[in-house]
Amino acid sequence: MGERVTVDAIEQEIIYARLLGVVQEMQNALFRTGYSTIIRESQDASCALTDAAGRVIAQQTVLPLHLGAFPACVEGVLAAYDVCEMRSGDAYVVNHPYFGGSPHANDMAAVSPVFFEDQLVGFCGSIAHKSDIGGMAPGSGPGSAREIYQEGLHLPPVRYASAGGISRELEGILRANSRTPDLVAGDLQGQVGCARLGERRLLALFEKYGREAVESSWLRSFAQVEARLREVISAWPDGVYEGEAFLDNDGSNGGRPVRIHVAASVRGDRLRFDFRGCDPQAVGPSNIRPPLVRAACYYVLKCLVDPELPSNAGLAAVVEADFTPGTIVDPILPAAVNTYIPTAQAVVEAALRALAPVAPQRQIAGSGGTGAIALGGRDASGKGFVQYELFGSGLGARNGKDGVSGTSVHVGNSRITPIEIIESEFPVRVRRFELIPDSGGAGRWRGGLGFSREYEVHAEARLSTRLDKHEVAPFGLMGGADGHTGCTRIDGPNGKARTLPSRAGDVPVGAGDTLLVERPGGGGFGDPADRPPEEVLADVREGYVSVGAAREIYGVDIGPDAEGRWQLSGRPGPSTSEQ
Prior knowledge:
Low-confidence stretches: 573-579
Shape: globular
Strand content: 15-25%
Strand order of the largest sheet: 2-1-5-4-3-6-7
Distance between the termini: 78 Å
Structural class: alpha+beta
Number of strands: 22
């Protein structure tokens, strides 16, 4: 067995499709066995297969940034353990951003080596968010963190399981450092289980087709992805293209926006991203490590070239990048990193703006970004809880299409937890969950709307937020208006209101308080005066745009007919842009 090596191009495609299927099966298993809402509902996890060196063979793109994290995690394992020390049935875990590739402490990678005929042929792995891994605040994501040691327990690459079972000692350490020990242990065991499933499926392919045929199938896919990208890049005009985006602040400097700058250099079929013009590393937790920045660049290339390209090492072969140590995109240990995702979104938007001249048909206005909240404490029974939720926003309008409302944007790509799950598992009641009219930037194509989510809190708790765009609005393009900014507010039963910054840490919330989270809308694209009146009318009927905004911003007069249904009354006069 394992000696067949002669396969044609069609059979190689079949083999690679089966490799993608293995990853999908691993991912389905992980989501279905998740203990925490963050895994089974929000689906904040990815699975992948890598080769023996850590190059990604296949990853179902749930979270694009993990395409950069997986190789760094495997490289960390290989640096800590010789291959001769590894055995079939092993599982190694790492969640250290600097000694591996984990985005932050919550994101724990579990990777298992795969041996065929006593040779290491690859790794099956997953990266999954843990609801709480210790640190100074419930959820392990405090906006007030100043170093990673305040963000929770960090594990360098370490063996967690073997053929004999899970390490009781290591699991004991994990349990002792989490406010939700059963959830953390259960989710991690699910990660080990999906890796074992992937190992069985991968070995079955090796047995059927032979090692050389299976490996040649993924090498062929690497080469195809790289060739496709280089073909398109070579058609772009040579030059240096610059773009930038901004974060609200670095968490400590009184509100000064933080600049993400990229210079994209095109030379023939080569593309290099230069991030050396970014601001210094943040004092707060907004820093992001280079493996994730590179993955954000992979995402940008897929958006501009072909969204259907496989997510594998072919992308990494094309992206070249430069960094300056000590900046927000290349921080120095122990800089805090728990709020990396808004920074990743800014990296994407800066890169998309930079490359807009070479792919004008793919331009997109600014989005409201991705964020999270963590509300933790003890319920009426005395049991600890951490309500960890991921939020999208409004997507920016595109050249030719309105932005999508209330959705995951760019590299966020996770799901919001259903109200029924939130209310059944945590001591809160969701009072409102609705789109915010007029929050999308006006334009020929309107930005997607943000949303509001309001909670009535029934237990003493502590809140941390990992949000952005409360100060810096999502930008409009080509005459389009900016989207509306976001807001987080706590209203007490006595009527006293507290407005929080976009990144806050360990804020007390009382039983009976109301927590309001308003997510930003996306920017508009093109002159609002060019939007057809019929589309403005449809927006009013859907509740996306108010009657007042239709008149004042779009110059479209709308009123009720005899039955109370909105209808066009004409354009009242020249729009602001025409005066």
